[in-house]
Amino acid sequence: MLFAPVRESFVTQPKVVLAYSGGLDTSVAIPWLRESKGTDVIAVTVDVGQPVDLERVRAKAERSGALRAYVADARAEFAEEFLLPALRANALYEGIYPLSTALARPLIARHLVAVARTEGARFVAHGCTGKGNDQVRFDLSTTGLAPELEVLAPAREWGMTREEEIAYAEAHGIPVEATKSSPYSTDENLWGRSVECGILEDPAVEPPEEAFGWTCAPAAAPDRAEYVQILFEEGRPVALNGRHLPLHELIATLNRTAGAHGVGRIDHLESRVVGIKSREVYECPAAAVLISAHQALESLVLPRDLLDFKRTVEQRYAQLVYDGLWYTPLRESLDTFVGSTQGRVSGEVAMKLYKGSARVVGRRSPNALYQAALATYSSGDAFRRQMAEGFIYVWGLPARTWAAVGAQARPTERPTVPAPGA
Fold first, then answer.
1. Smaller CB count within 10 Å for the chain: N or C?
2. pLDDT tens string 11-55
3. 141 closest CA partner among 106, 102, 104, 115
4. Are 280 and 370 within one domain?
5. Beta strands of 248-314 (E only): which ranges?
6. Backbone dihedral region of 173: left (phi > 0), alpha (psi from -120 to 50 degrees) or beta?
7. Mean pLDDT of 319-330
8. Does residue 6 sit in the same domain as residue 101?
């Protein structure tokens, strides 16, 4: 963990450790916390793969009034301890969203807690609003790790609109990228990029191209498809096109490759934890490719009953992560189950990237349950077809018995109804 030179205040004040991104909300939060709460602010920026100049972000935190500004390189930690379990669980909230933002929050909270304990801080803070999911994730992650710490959420208190925040920042000499003409709020990490606010709040309007930053418009993508080969070992991607890479580098590389073909755009009408519907736009190129490839490999090597039950677990896992419950016994137990299914999930998957789509076009594994001699209709067929009639009889016996008993219970003749007045 790197940190800036110490700048102690002359008067001891309560300390608050702020999750600092350098964006509008957290930039405004530094002077607001100092003025409204009388606290010294210690900024913590966690590198989870966001494509920004982190040293510049740290310097901006200090210029905005932070007592100290920490920067932690957590890319490998994020990939290994959060993204890999989610990938093995094929975690897609509502079957669509790969949980990119949701997975980063418990990691960032872990670093906030670590700095708070080092600094002797009483509070941690974040820039989340009172309408979003991230406030839930930060608050619950902090509670799960350090129940003695109090969480401050300036954006839940100050009541400023986005336009008023921009004006507040300008009045305090804080440069921000958001403007009144381009009011998008973005969040980026290795697993994806989220975009909201502005015209995106109207679910009837197609997202404009200016909202996207990682993906090419599918219509403008290359006219020639690109194939990528992904090698898995026990559910873990270890090589891309024959090149072995650390997981966080493999993901970053695949984001660029798939994004150039317009892969990974998601337009989701999402059910937030707080009970409202929200239109969210995401770009998740690597996540889209890797989850599809992993699912295809699992289908090749796992039996049907295990796949069926695992899908139930996957849905619960995604819901739990989305709802901010990472630091819970249930998540740990689900990870144990999912991990136990991955011992045979080794092999290679070929993906075809073309004009916004990522399709599985080939898969192979030394653990494949697919056996050509059993599946073929050509010469070499080893399936014992004569056994099928007995199997069908036994398999259908419950249904046959039910139907037979039901037929016996039905009356054979309709009773005679007396005529009126008889």
1. C
2. 578 999 999 998 888 999 999 999 999 999 999 999 999 988 989
3. 106
4. yes
5. 265-271, 277-283
6. left
7. 98
8. yes
Other C-beta atoms lying within 10 Å of the C-beta of residue 160: 16
CATH of the domain at 137: 3.40.50.620
Q: Which of 128, 178, 159 is nearest to 18 (CA)?
A: 128
Q: Do 58 and 203 lie in a common domain?
A: no
| Whether the predicted model's global pTM rises above the 0.85 cut | yes
Of 182, 208, 232, the residue at which a domain comes to its end is 182
262 in a structural domain: yes
Are 136 and 118 part of one and the same domain?
A: yes
Domain that holds residue 173: 2-182
Q: Are residues 232 and 156 in the same domain?
A: no
**pLDDT given for residue 196 in this prediction:** 87
Active site residues: 25, 105, 134, 185
Q: Do 140 and 133 meet the contact criterion of CB atoms below 8 Å apart?
A: no
Q: What angle do CA 348, 351, 357 make, to 5 degrees?
A: 155
Tell me the pLDDT band of 331, cut-offs 50, 70 and 90. very high
The answer to whether 231 and 143 are in contact (CB under 8 A) is: no
What is the C-alpha to C-alpha distance for residues 134 and 46, in angstroms, rounded to an integer? 15
| Residues 128 and 168 occupy one common structural domain | yes
Report the side by side order of strands in the sheet with 2-3. Answer: 2-3, 68-73, 40-47, 15-19, 123-125, 150-152
- 274 Cβ contact partners less than 8 Å away, ≥ 6 residues apart: 131, 132, 133, 136
Q: Percent of the chain scored above 90 by pLDDT?
A: 77
Number of domains in the chain: 2
Task: Name the domain boundary from 148, 182, 216.
Answer: 182
Residue 401, domain member (yes or no): no
Residue 123 burial class via C-beta count within 10 angstroms: exposed 0-12, middle 13-18, buried 19 and up: buried
Report the CATH number that the domain containing residue 348 is assigned in CATH. Answer: 3.90.1260.10
Inter-helix orientation angle 247-259/285-301, to 10°: 110
